[in-house]
Design goal:
The protein has helices at residues 3-13, 23-30, 32-36, 58-69; strands at residues 42-43, 47-48. By secondary structure, the chain is mainly α.
Length: 87
């Protein structure tokens, strides 16, 4: 297995202790520095991530938006609160 593949697999399956999992979210929501990087992609551990170029392509964004608007009901979620709770 190539070295880059090994690194990627280790990164994907590296398990952090539960108390570490919220650190990036907490940092992003509470630090002054995070306020200065508004609109960026934050990755563990409070670092600015690099998004793919497609993520910032306005033409592709418009295409996606148009396609999503043409998909009524595909992302629909219904919650039935009356089902069998009273039995």
């Amino acid at each position: 297995m190539p070295g880059e593949m090994k690194k990627m697999i280790k990164k994907m399956f590296f398990i952090h202790p539960p108390e570490w999992k919220s650190l990036t979210t907490l940092w992003t929501g509470t630090s002054r520095e995070a306020g200065e990087i508004n609109g960026k992609y934050i990755v563990p551990w409070g670092k600015v991530g690099v998004s793919r170029k497609e993520a910032n392509d306005p033409v592709l964004a418009k295409e996606l938006w148009t396609w999503l608007e043409g998909q009524p009901g595909i992302f629909r979620f219904e919650l039935d609160l009356d089902s069998s709770r009273n039995t």
